[in-house]
């Protein structure tokens, strides 16, 4: 279960030389500043992919030992990279303690290993439009699908300053972890919280819809209110509203969260070895949402 964030621990962000990672690092640093937690820059060397490998997993400052020339060069390049990023972020966010880690693993493994002890693990991705959106970068998708804790995917560049609002997408019988995480983050960031139930009516035979759709929408809102009743009482200072939106969940949630600080959803964790596959809603949101998406694991 995701615990109450009375004492947030740290934010980890995966970094490399790409613009996507740079945007993710900036976003993560801002959250670290607002939450008052340290920021860890994690760079994966993926030494298994080159000629020779390191002798063990390590962090910046680990002794070279018997590393090959290839591995040693990768370590030195990695250290220079994270040092540059740390200096830049330190200048922009002077109140944030920025630390750097190098891992000999590949990026998904390194980030997933770090996710269990983190307030969030952040990755950046370009995403794509249209059907190509299903080909979202495998690192972000693997971390979102397999992470041990909340994973945030920052896609593209959000124009302007976001509203200090968190949007939570729920479904009937929603599990507690994503709801608790959204409330805890809203409390810690002093954000408003909007709970959205996206729903689609089922047509009867012949394609006609039966029943009063307006009444059904009211019932959907009432069900969302019931889901969060206990957390609303637990977090009385969080300004919460609920809404039902009729339509496909992916575009409805994207529109509801447009301009907001964070969109939170839950996802069942996959047990197969780091496969890329994920559900339609998760893939759709990570591929198309301009708002950063936090994926909270559900066991």
Low-confidence stretches: 52-65, 128-136
CATH architecture group name: 3-Layer(aba) Sandwich
Rg, rounded, reads: 20 Å
Number of strands: 10
What is the CATH third-level topology name? Rossmann fold
Instruction: Going across the biggest sheet, name each strand in turn.
Output: 3-2-1-4-5-10-9-6-7-8
Fraction of residues in β-strands: 15-25%
Brief sketch in words of this structure:
The protein is of the alpha/beta class and 299 residues long. Helix content is 37%, strand content 20%.
Structure overview:
- With 299 residues, the protein is an alpha/beta fold.
- The chain has one domain: Rossmann fold (3-Layer(aba) Sandwich), CATH 3.40.50.12370.
- It is built from 9 helices and 10 strands.
- The chain has helices at residues 19-35, 69-92, 107-115, 138-146, 176-189, 213-227, 229-234, 249-257, 280-288; strands at 11-14, 39-44, 98-103, 120-125, 151-155, 165-170, 192-199, 240-246, 262-268, 293-298.
- A 10-stranded mixed beta sheet has the order 3-2-1-4-5-10-9-6-7-8, with helices on both faces.
- α9 (280-288) links the parallel β9 (262-268) and β10 (293-298).
- α3 packs parallel to α4 and α8 runs parallel beside α9 (280-288).
